[in-house]
Design goal:
Elements lengths: L18 E13 L2 E8 L6 E2 L2 E3 L6 H13 L1 E5 L5 E9 L3 E17 L11 E4 L1 H7 L3 H21 L1
Parallel strand pairs: 1-7
Antiparallel strand pairs: 1-2, 1-4, 2-3, 2-8, 5-7, 6-7
């Protein structure tokens, strides 16, 4: 992403795209080998990303992120109400065409992984060490966010235990 500054009309200054808001869950778990982060494939290109989607009316941002984690990745757990960062990505919107999404990210400590979930046949999922996950995602600012999470992951996991 070249320029993430917003213009006064809510468009990205460098691309003049409408800006919309989404939420995401940075799903993580503690294993004997250390902290792992969950990535899922996108439905279109198959690129690796974290579960994300639109804020759901009637739910908090964190609860919306947790719902996306269930629908897209089949995981449940404790979703922190404090966001740990954000990233931007371009997306095609049914009504508006190409838009820029600003995505607030909430850490979700996974306690259950289901085999059957709403988008099970449409996505792949993989558990990786944070640095490996950061290498696989396409969005550079998401990669940086995951790398930053890896430096505090042990404290986040310990705080939730």
């Amino acid at each position: 992403m070249k320029d993430a500054r917003l213009s006064s009309d809510g468009a990205f200054a460098s691309q003049q795209l409408p800006v919309m808001r989404q939420v995401a869950a940075l799903c993580h778990r503690q294993t004997q080998a250390g902290v792992e982060v969950l990535l899922i494939s996108t439905r279109g290109s198959g690129r690796w990303i974290i579960p994300k989607g639109w804020v759901i009316t009637g739910l908090s941002d964190a609860d919306s992120a947790a719902r996306e984690a269930w629908e897209e990745a089949g995981v449940t757990g404790h979703c922190d109400t404090r966001r740990i960062g954000s990233f931007a990505h371009a997306k095609h919107h049914k009504r508006l065409g190409r838009v820029m999404c600003l995505v607030d990210v909430f850490p979700l400590r996974v306690t259950e992984v289901a085999e059957s979930f709403p988008e099970a046949g449409q996505r792949r999922r993989v558990w990786l060490k944070p640095d490996e996950a950061a290498d696989r995602v396409f969005a550079q600012d998401l990669s940086a966010l995951i790398r930053g999470f890896s430096t505090v992951a042990d404290r986040v996991v310990a705080r939730k235990a």
